[in-house]
Structures are given as structure tokens and as C-alpha cells.
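User: Run a structure prediction on this.
Assistant: Running it now.
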Amino acid sequence: MHLKRIVKFESLKTEQNMRVLFFLFLCYSMISCKFDKSDLQNSTWKIYQKSSNDFGDVISFKNMDVKNDTIFFNNEPIYLIVEYRNRYFMDKFITIKSLNTQNIATYINK
């Protein structure tokens, strides 16, 4: 009888640990995926990977306006933000898609 109680307690303890781990992972993913418009505009971005020569080696978004997931230049939409991610809390990446050519490039924050 005593052994059954220990087994039930251990399984309950494991279940609680899994819930805590899931909650921590959820919190981490929400924090790490935060997109900051000022961070995008106040930084210089260097090319990391590109699918064509439509994109330059360095891009700055200072003269561009960001609304939702679209980047505007002179009130004309030119890029779509496909992905914005952090790597190891240091490197920040942005993947953009040209609305004219549909080509994609990934830039790293420098």
C-alpha cells in the first residue's frame, strides 16, 4: 500500500515539473519573439543570406516606416517582414521579402 502512494506521488511530481517547464518555455518564447520597431530603425543591418542580388550588403531602416509587418518607403510598401528572431540573446535577425520581386533576404543586426 505504501509503495502505491510513492508511485502516485512521483507521477504527480513529474506532471507538475512538466507544467512548470512548459510555462517557462512559453514565457521565454514570448519574450524572445518581441519585435521592437525602434530597434529596427536605430540599427544597421548587414546581409546574412539572400536569394538574389536585389538586396544590398547593408540596409538601414531609418528613412522607412514600419506598420505591422510591412516596411514603407515614401508611403509605398516595399518589403514584408517574414521573420524577426533573436539568437542567444545577442544576435538579431530579420528576414524580409521584396514585394516587387518576391525574393527574400536575411539580415543580421550589427
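Residues 34-109 form one domain.
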